[in-house]
Amino acid sequence: MAEKVGLPPGTVVHTGIDRTEKVTISIMEFADGQMREYIADSIDDCSPPLDPAATKWVHVRGVHDVELVKKVCDFYELHPLVVEDIPSVGQRPKFEAMPKSVYIVLRRYDYKKQDGELQSEQMSIVFGKNFVLSFQESPDDVFDAIRDRARHPSSSIRSAGPDYLAYVILDLLVDEYFAVLERIGDMIEDLEDELIEYATSDILNRIYKIKRNLLSFRRHIWPLREVVLKLMRDASAYVKQETQVFLRDLYDHVIRVTDHVETYRESITGMLDIYLSSVSNKMNEVMKVLTVVSTIVIPLTLMASIYGMNWKYIPEIEVLGNFGYPIFLVAMLAVTAVLVMYFRKRAWI
User: Fold this and answer.
1) What does the domain layout of the chain look like in residue ranges?
2) How far apart are CA 272 and CA 260, in angstroms?
3) Which helix (H) or strand (E) holds 290?
C-alpha cells in the first residue's frame, strides 16, 4: 500500500492492499448488432474502436498495476485527476462530468454469511461517446451476468449505446446491494430469535458486528443517491433520453436500499436496547433472590449469635434445660417460615 501524502495532484498511486495477481482485461465490442468478445493480449487491444458508431467495453480486473491503468486511460484522454482516483481505493461515491467522458465511482459489496463479514471493493466506471471503461480491485469477474445478456443476439446492450451499458453495470451493482441486505436481514431475524431466549456476550458481539457493517454500508450508499441524480441531470451530453427512464428506475432502487439500511439500523438499535434490558432484568432477578436469602438468614444469624456468646449466665439455658436446643431450632424454622410466607404474600418470591 502506497502513501499519497505530499504528492502533487494527478500522481497515480495504488492505495489498496498489496496484490500480486496478474491484471486481466476483458473486452467486448458492439457494432451493427454484432458482438466481439476477447481477452486483451496487449495494451493496444484497449484502444478506442475504429468505428465511431461502435461501443467498446474494456473491463480491467485489478488496479494495482498503475502503469497499465494509466495506459488504458491515456487511450481515451481521461483527465489526470480521474486517472489518479481509479487506483486510489477508498473513494467516496461520486460523479464527475469531464469534457470527453463521465466518471463514476462507487463500491461493490459482498456479505460472507459464514463469518459475518461485509466485504467491499471500489468500482470505477468511465463512459463516453463510444466506450465504457470499468475498473475493479479484485481479480474476480463480477459482470458475468451482463456478458451472458450481451451474448444474446436480441440483447439491447448490443445496440443501446455506452450510456445504457453504464446503466446496466450500475444496476447490477445496486441489485447486489439488495442481496447483501437480504442476508443481513436474515441474520438480524436469527439474532432476534436467539435474543428472546437468552442474552449472551456472543450475541452482543454479533450485534455490534452487524451494526458496524451497516454503518459502513450506509456511509457509501447515501452519496450514491446524489451520484445518480447528477448522472440524470448533468450528463445529458452522454446520456440519451431513452436511458433517462432507466436511470430514474435506478434512482428508485437506490432510495429503497437506503430505506432498508435505515430500517435495519433501527432494528439493531432496538436489539441493543433489548439486550441491555434483558441483562438488567436478569441482574435484578439475581439481586432479588440474594436479597430475599439475606433477609431470611439475617434474623437466624442474630439468634445464633446471641446464644453463641460466651457468658457464664444465660437465663434461657437453665430455664429450658435439655429441651433448649430443639426449641431453639424450632424457633429458627418458625421465623424462616413466617418470612417466606410474608415474601410470597407480597409477591417478592
Assistant:
1) 24-277, 280-345
2) 18
3) helix 241-306
Exposure string for 285-302, b = 16+ CB within 10 A, e = fewer = eeeeeeeeeeebeeeeee
CB-based burial of residue 253 (10 Å sphere; 0-12 exposed, 13-18 middle, 19+ buried)? middle
**What is the C-alpha separation between 87 and 81, in angstroms, rounded?**
11
Integer Cα distance of 172 and 334 in angstroms? 77
Q: Are 76 and 56 in contact (CB under 8 A)?
A: no
pLDDT at 5: 60
Domain covering 24-277 in this structure, CATH number: 3.30.460.20
For residue 211, what is its C-alpha cell?
451494526
Which among 82, 177, 213 is positioned nearest to 135, based on CA atoms? 82
Give Cβ neighbours of residue 173 (< 8 Å, ≥ 6 apart).
106, 108, 123
Residue 161 DSSP one-character state: -
Place of cell 458492439: 30
Helix, strand or coil, per DSSP, at residue 207: helix
Alpha-helical regions (H) of 48-200: 66-75, 80-85, 144-151, 157-160, 162-197
Task: Give the residue among 69, 55, 66 at the shortest CA–CA distance from 15.
Answer: 66
* 324 grid coordinates: 433448649
Judging by DSSP bridges, how do beta strands 24-31 and 34-39 pair with one another? Answer: antiparallel
Per-10-residue mean pLDDT for the chain, 349 residues long? 61 78 90 85 88 89 89 90 88 88 90 69 91 90 88 86 92 91 86 76 83 86 90 84 91 92 87 80 81 86 79 70 78 86 79
Q: What's the fold here for domain 280-345?
A: Methane Monooxygenase Hydroxylase; Chain G, domain 1 (1.20.58)
77 by DSSP, 3-state: which?
coil
pLDDT recorded at residue 8 = 65
